[in-house]
Amino acid sequence: MLTGAQQNNLAAAGQQRRINPIRPLTIKQLTEGMSVGDGVMVIDGHEVTQATIVGRVVGYENANMAAGGAQTAKHFGYRITDTTGLLVARQWVDGGSESEPLPLNSHVRASGSVKVWQDAPVVTGTVVAVADSNELNYHALDAILTHLRLTKGNRRPVEGKSSLTNTPGAVGVQNMLPGGSSNVPLTDLLVSVIRQNANGSDSGMSMDELVVSAQGYGFSSKDVGAALRILASEGKVYQMHDNRFNI
């Protein structure tokens, strides 16, 4: 049974986590952030107490880690790069632990509290290996999107056409979309077109194919490009390596 003081402490901790959620960042954002007060980081005008980064292990904070010395250390210290900068991330371990540090060149995600130590930010928490090196790219996009939302708000392109009038008079009976809605966003149209043409495969559709499909409803290539950017930012569509798009 929790005492009243313990319940108050848990409530305060939960409120603190909501106020300062873990934030995706690039290493450059962290190293160029402003340090104020007692090692507090401020980025984009917002206090950052917890962060997550993704990068590659290029070295160890303690040279003895490579020779097994980390087995008696209090923490594993990794030097991580994401091509934008270099950062130390630490993971605390038991003094008698037999666990080994992650090997060099591993792609990892480091998450935890952010503090300034010797004039440089350090992330202390967990460091885990990631199975897919593409997570580095996804994380970078997440960090950029979060930065734009904090500095510019949730803006969407207003130029061009963004929806279609789904009626026989506007698009013809043969081109009407199912569902009965008379006003269909272009983003929904593109998702529907990709889903219908994918047929369970991973081939996706090219930009030219999407434009041709959308032109049948009166949209331009510029409209399609703007809609795809929205879908990508929302995680509904991703771009493949050969400039094709899939869901």
Automatic annotation (TrEMBL):
Cell compartment(s), UniProt: Nucleus
Protein name in UniProt: Replication protein A C terminal, putative
Chain ranges of the Replication protein A C-terminal domain: 147-243
Species whose genome carries this gene: Angomonas deanei
Main location: nucleus
GO molecular function, one term: single-stranded DNA binding
Keyword match DNA-binding: yes
Gene Ontology terms describing biological process: DNA replication; double-strand break repair via homologous recombination; nucleotide-excision repair
